[in-house]
Specification:
This protein is an alpha/beta fold. The chain contains 8 helices and 11 strands. It is 28% helix and 21% strand. The strands form 3 sheets. The chain has a 6-stranded parallel β-sheet, sandwiched between helices. Bound molecules: adenosine-5-diphosphoribose. Residues 11-13, 16-17, 22-25, 35, 88, 106, 172-174, 176-177, 196-199, 214-215 line the site of adenosine-5-diphosphoribose (APR).
Amino acid sequence: MDRRHIVVLTGAGISAESGIPTFRGSGGLWFKHRIEDVATPEAFDRDPEMVLTFYNQRRAQLQSVEPNTAHKALARLEQGHRVSVVTQNVDNLHERAGSTNVLHLHGQLCRARSSADPDWAVDIGYGSIRMGQTCPLGSQLRPDVVWFGEPVPMMDAAREVVSTADVLMIVGTSLAVYPAAYLAHDAPPRAEVIVVDPEAQAGKIPGARIYRDKATLRVPLLVDELLG
Ligand code: APR
């Protein structure tokens, strides 16, 4: 078996079977909130306490869920290949499953950052961010996640990673959000592209191998195949 560069682009679907609802699965509501009411800079300006509370609840819940067999299979894949996980998820389940090379395109739930300086961020684990907690510049701390309409600072790095893929595995993402969705088309022409999603649409990625299965069923089988 030759060692290849396997890039795995994941979305909320890979964490669904760990008990974390997807963004567009429940009629457009995310934990009973409209995304634009909690995941935008305008929402934070309008009602910072409500947004902080929403993310404090998400962070606390993350402590009580576990990586699933799909996350764990991707960690196992590192035994035989160079694996780069590029995730849109802000949860830490890939890391907790053992993946050692994870790029978070949309930030990380367990980090807080300055509202004034996006480069000033700290790990807070599963703790809360409170009103009045400020960065050294005196600005209110906020979740270190990318909200709608904000820049995606890791996008260039992500495109670079995908551009060197021998295999691009796309798991559990609707590819509804840009610029992340561009990544599905950034693999080199010779790369093999594999999609795992119960709702995968044919033709969205020409030439891709599509499995309309849940991640916990299909990803371990694909990892066995790639390690075979
Ligand atoms: N296994 C695999 N895929 C699944 C599973 C599962 N068990 N359950 C659901 N899915 C698929 C759905 O069919 C859907 O295509 O996961 C996808 C989830 O899509 P979204 O809810 O749109 O999540 P995602 O693609 O990650 O959203 C991208 O949008 O809201 C923003 O920043 C947020 O990172 C997020 C981005």
